[in-house]
Design a protein that fits this description.
heterodimer; A: about 450 residues; alpha/beta; about 25% helix; globular; B: about 160 residues; mainly alpha; 3-stranded mixed β-sheet; 8 helices
C-alpha cells in the first residue's frame, strides 16, 4: 500500500540532475554517497560527482576504506575536476590504515582521470617509505596541486621527483619535501618545466645535502611564498628567474637565506611579507640583504616579532645602521601584532626602521579585533617557543576552531595564515582546542581589558 | 527611444512588476546580458521569465551588499525550503554565478549531516524504493554509512500513517 501524500510534493527533486550535483559538491563525499537511499533517482546520482571532498573528521581508521570503495564505485566515464583529501588522524592509539596506501591510490586515480585540481593533506607517520606515483607528476590536465604530507617530526621529508611534466600547472603548494639537484651547476631546479606556474608555496622543505641552493625559474610566476619551521633547513641560497614576480612572502622563522639574487630584474616586485611568528635570530648579513630588497617594494607586511628583531639588530650594530637604506618606494606598511602589544611601542619601532625614509602613505597595525586567526597564530608561537607540551586552547572564533579541529570546512586556498596555524597546531598531538562562547570567554575578555591600562 | 547611454535597464518579472536596475547589476545576469548584446541599442524592456518580484528584491539586496564588500552578510535563513529552491532556480535561469554559488552552498548546508529520513521529510522526496530495494541499496553501500547513526527510515514512514 503506497501512501499518496499530495501535499508533500517533491521539492528538491524538481531540480535537474546537474543542479543537484552542484549542490552535492559542497558536501563531503560520505554524505553524498548516503543520498543513494533517498529515492531511485538519487540511487546513482552521487557517482557523477566531479568535485569530491574526501574528508571525515570523525573516523580516521575506516575512512580510508571508504575512500577506496568510493573510488572504485564511482562512474569512470564522468570526468573528474577536483579531488581533495584531508585526513587528520591525531590519536596515537588508532590502528594505522592499510599499508597499500590510500594516498597512492588517490593520486593514481586522479592522474588517470585527468583531474584538474588535487589536494592532499595527510599525516604520514605510519607509512614507512611513501613512494609517490610518477603518474601524478606527469599529468597534462593538472592545474593545481597541493601536497601537504606531514611527517612525525619536523625534519622528515618526502622526496620530490627530479623532473616534472605538468604543463598546465598554475598553482603548487608543497610542504615537507626534499628537492634534488638535476643540473650541473649544483642547484635544485625542480619547477622549471612548469611554464604556466603562477603561484608557488614551499614550506618546511630541504635540499639534497650537497646542493648549492634552490633555483626557481618560471616566466609566469607572480606569487611566491617560502619558509621553514626551524633553522635546520638547508636552503641557504635562493635564486629567482621570475620576471613577473609581484609578491614574495616569507613564512615561519625569519629567513635563513639572503634576499634572493635575481637573474633578471624584478622591477615588478610590489609586495614583501614577513609572516614570521617565531624564531629569535637572524644573521646580520642576511638582514642587510633583505633591507635592500625592502627598498625596492611598494607594500610591506611585517609581523611584530620580526620588526622587533630587525630593530634590535640595528640598534646593536652601528655599521649596519649606517647602511640602512631609505625606503622611498614604500607606500603601504602593515604590522601584525599581538593584541596586547602596545601600539605606541610599535610605532616607535617602525619610526626607527624608517629613520632614513619618508613616512609611507598608509600604515596599519592589525590586531585581534581585525584578525582572530592572527591571535591563534601568536598563541601557537608562544606555546611552541616555550616548549609547552600539553595545551588546551580556548577560542571564541568558530571559524578558527573549525579549521584547527576539522580542517574540512576550510576552503580558501590563499589564506596562508590559517594554513600555518593548522600546520603548527597539528604538529603536536597534545594540543587540543575547545570552542567557547564569546560571552563565556571572560578570561580572555578580562585580560584584554586589563591590557589597555 | 530609450537612450543607450542610460545606465538603467528595465526588467519585467513574471508577475508583471518592472524593476529599473543599474547596468552593472544587469551585467551580473549573464542571461540578461546576452539579450542586451544580441538586441540593438534600443532595448526597451527585458522580460525575465521564472523570476518573481520577491526574487528581484533579494537579488538587489545581494548586489548592494556585494558592492559594499559585505556579501558575507547576505543570508537566506528566513526562506523556507520551497522558497529557497524557487530562488535557486530563478538565479540559475538568470545565470548569476556568485549568487548561485551562495545559494547552492545554502542548500547543501541544509542537507549536510541530516539523516536520510529527515532529508526526505524535510524536502518532501518520495521514497519509491520497495523495502527490499531499500535494504539492498543500503547493504550494497554500507561502507558509506559506517560510523554514522542512520535510523532505519522504514519505521518512521509507517508511523506517519
Amino acid at each position: 500500500m503506497k501512501r499518496q501524500k499530495k501535499s508533500e510534493i517533491d521539492r528538491l527533486s524538481d531540480l535537474p540532475d546537474h543542479l543537484l550535483l552542484h549542490i552535492m559538491q559542497f558536501m563531503i563525499a560520505k554524505h553524498c554517497v548516503q543520498t543513494c537511499v533517498l529515492s531511485k533517482r538519487w540511487k546513482n546520482l552521487w557517482k557523477c560527482l566531479t568535485n569530491i571532498k574526501l574528508f571525515d573528521p570523525y573516523n580516521g581508521v575506516i575512512f580510508d576504506e571508504f575512500v577506496s570503495q568510493f573510488l572504485s564505485c564511482r562512474d569512470n566515464s564522468v570526468p573528474l575536476h577536483n579531488i581533495s583529501y584531508k585526513n587528520n588522524v591525531r590519536r596515537n592509539y588508532e590502528i594505522p590504515p592499510k599499508t597499500t596506501n590510500i594516498l597512492v591510490e588517490i593520486m593514481e586515480y586522479a592522474a588517470s582521470h585527468n583531474v584538474q585540481q588535487l589536494e592532499i593533506k595527510a599525516k604520514t607517520d605510519h607509512i614507512r617509505n611513501l613512494e609517490l606515483p610518477p603518474s601524478i607528476f606527469n599529468c597534462d590536465s593538472l592545474t593545481s596541486l597541493t601536497l601537504f604530507l606531514r611527517g612525525v617530526s619536523k625534519s622528515t621529508t618526502k622526496m620530490f621527483p627530479k623532473s616534472l611534466n605538468l604543463p598546465a600547472l598554475k598553482t603548487l603548494t608543497l610542504v615537507q619535501f626534499t628537492f634534488f639537484t638535476s643540473s650541473d651547476n649544483g642547484y635544485a631546479e625542480p619547477f622549471s618545466t612548469c611554464n604556466m606556474l603562477n603561484k608557488l608555496v614551499i614550506f618546511a622543505c630541504k635540499l639534497q645535502d650537497d646542493a648549492q641552493g634552490l633555483c626557481i625559474s618560471n616566466s609566469k610566476l607572480s606569487n611566491l611564498a617560502i619558509g621553514t619551521m626551524n633553522r635546520r633547513s638547508n636552503i641557504h641560497k635562493v635564486i629567482l628567474c621570475t620576471p613577473k614576480l609581484k609578491s614574495l612572502t616569507i613564512i615561519g622563522i625569519p629567513p635563513i637565506f639572503p634576499a634572493p639574487s635575481t637573474c633578471s630584474l624584478t622591477n615588478l616586485l610590489e609586495e614583501l611579507k614577513f609572516d614570521c611568528m617565531y624564531g629569535s635570530t637572524m644573521g646580520e648579513d642576511i638582514l642587510i640583504s633583505w633591507l635592500h630588497l625592502i627598498a625596492k617594494v611598494n607594500i610591506m607586511t611585517l609581523s611584530y616579532k620580526i620588526l622587533k628583531l630587525m630593530v634590535n639588530i640595528l640598534k646593536n650594530n652601528s655599521s649596519m645602521r649606517a647602511q640602512l637604506p631609505s625606503f622611498v618606494k614604500l607606500k603601504s606598511l602593515k604590522v601584525e601584532a599581538y593584541p596586547w602589544k602596545c601600539d605606541d611601542r610599535i610605532r616607535e619601532m617602525v619610526s626607527y626602521l624608517l629613520q632614513n625614509s619618508p613616512p609611507p602613505a598608509t600604515f596599519d597595525i592589525v590586531t585581534v579585533v581585525k584578525c582572530e586567526a592572527t591571535v591563534m597564530k601568536y598563541a601557537l608561537a608562544f606555546v611552541l617557543s616555550n616548549g609547552f607540551e600539553r595545551v588546551i586552547f580556548e577560542d571564541d572564533c568558530q571559524q578558527v576552531v573549525n579549521v584547527l579541529c576539522n580542517d574540512y570546512l576550510y576552503v580558501n586556498e590563499l589564506d596562508t595564515l590559517l594554513s600555518t596555524c593548522s600546520f603548527l597546531f597539528n604538529s603536536n598531538d597534545n594540543y587540543n582546542i575547545v570552542y567557547v562562547m564569546r560571552q563565556v570567554n571572560m578570561v580572555a575578555q578580562n585580560l584584554a581589558r586589563a591590557s589597555l591600562f | 527611444m530609450a537612450s543607450s547611454s542610460s545606465n538603467l535597464i528595465s526588467l519585467k518579472t513574471s508577475d508583471g512588476t518592472v524593476f529599473k536596475v543599474e547596468r552593472a547589476l544587469a551585467k551580473t545576469m549573464k542571461t540578461v546580458q546576452a539579450i542586451i548584446e544580441e538586441a540593438d541599442a534600443n532595448i526597451y524592456m527585458i522580460p525575465i521569465h521564472n523570476v518573481f518580484s520577491h526574487h528581484m528584491d533579494m537579488i538587489i539586496d545581494y548586489y548592494k551588499l556585494s558592492v559594499a564588500g559585505k556579501s558575507k552578510e547576505f543570508s537566506v535563513e528566513k526562506l523556507d525550503n520551497d522558497e529557497l529552491k524557487d530562488f535557486l532556480l530563478a538565479v540559475h535561469y538568470l545565470n548569476m554565478e556568485d549568487l548561485f554559488e551562495v545559494l547552492t552552498q545554502a542548500v547543501a548546508d541544509r542537507l549536510e549531516k541530516k539523516s536520510v529520513g529527515y532529508v526526505r521529510k524535510y524536502f518532501g522526496i518520495e521514497n519509491d524504493f520497495t523495502p527490499e530495494e531499500y535494504a539492498a541499496i543500503r547493504k550494497k553501500n554500507d561502507w558509506a554509512f559506517k560510523g554514522d547513526d542512520i535510523e532505519p527510515e522504514e519505521d518512521e514512514e509507517k508511523q506517519e500513517e
